[in-house]
Amino acid sequence: DELGAEQEERRRRTLLNKEFKAFSEKIAEASEGSIDVDIPFRDIGFQGVPFRTNVLLQPTTECLVHLTDQPFLVIPISDIEIAHLERVQFGLKNFDLVFIFKDYSRPPVHINTIPMNQLENVKDWLDSVDVTFYEGTQNLNWTQIMKTINQDPADFYAQGGWSFLKLHSENEDSDASSDSVSEYQQSEDEYEESSSDESSYDEEASNDSDPGSETEDSEDTAPDWDELEEKARRADERKHGIKRGNASDEEHSRNKKLRR
Questions:
Q1: Residue 67 contacts by C-beta under 8 Å, 6 or more apart in sequence?
Q2: Which band of pLDDT confidence, cut at 50, 70 and 90, is reported for residue 151?
Q3: What is the rounded CA–CA span in Å between residue 78 and residue 119?
Q4: What is the C-alpha separation between 64 and 234, in angstroms, rounded?
Q5: Nearest residue to 116 via CA among 74, 85, 139
Q6: What is the spatial distance between Cα 98 and Cα 163, in angstroms, rounded to a whole number?
Q7: What fold is seen in the domain 39-161?
Q8: Distance between CA atoms of 186 and 114, rounded to whole angstroms?
Q9: Are strands 46-48 and 55-59 parallel, antiparallel or unpaired?
Q10: Residue 158 has pLDDT above 50, yes or no
Q11: Measured between alpha carbons, how far is 260 from 257 in angstroms, rounded to an integer?
């Protein structure tokens, strides 16, 4: 069954580890100190793709190794001149690591697709073994770079050597910061525009929704109750006065007829 097979695999692995440890100790004793046995530090290992498959890469005192499956990988730290961390940018899940050797005739070794959450562990390990490293947001064309360096190494160092990697990284950072500043300024402009629109809208709304001023003006210009009564009284007086005048005229004409 599966449980029995898993237990058998663990037992076999433990036995192989003991045999390999005993073998390495015998080699160290037989060499009388001329050979040191190095043990990988599994706790600071990291996943990566040095060839075609994702494997566990483990640092040792002198090397970075992968010895579990073929093809094997052994990179002596003393052979490394610099390391370059590539595709280090916010939002990506993985980054790449490139080792450039002191022997410029050797092609650089690429370890791709390292999880981004192991970035600080890789940096700490490179610091602990005194390997200078740079980082950037893009992959570089190392075939062309090494070809240019090998054409005139003296001129390469005269122009600053590997400092161009630092300048390249700073330029990428400045471009990113300038983009952030422009986006921030644009957002400020949009905010001011929206604020002005809101203020004009509030002003129009206050003018449209404030009938109090018109009511107050109409109340100030409209006559009060006493004035209305006074006007009505005067109209009645004028009306009655006209009727009295007409009545007196009719009486006067009748008197004239009687005298005749």
A1: 40, 73, 74
A2: very high
A3: 22
A4: 117
A5: 85
A6: 16
A7: PH-domain like (2.30.29)
A8: 36
A9: antiparallel
A10: yes
A11: 5
pLDDT surpassing 50 at residue 215: no
| Sheet order of strands, 46-48 included | 46-48, 55-59, 63-66, 73-76
Give the start-to-end residue ranges of the domains of the chain: 1-37, 39-161, 163-211
- Quickly state the pLDDT bin for 17 (edges 50, 70, 90): confident
Burial class of residue 83 in the structure, from the number of CB atoms within 10 Å of its CB (0-12 exposed, 13-18 middle, 19+ buried)? buried
Sheet containing strand 94-101, edge to edge, reads: 109-115, 94-101, 80-86, 132-135
pLDDT digits (tens, 9 = 90+) for 84-125: 999 999 999 999 999 999 999 999 999 999 999 999 999 999
Side chain identity, residue 180: S
Tally of CB atoms within 10 A around 172: 16
Cis-peptide into 71, omega within 30 deg: yes
Alpha-carbon distance of 56 to 65, in angstroms, equals 9
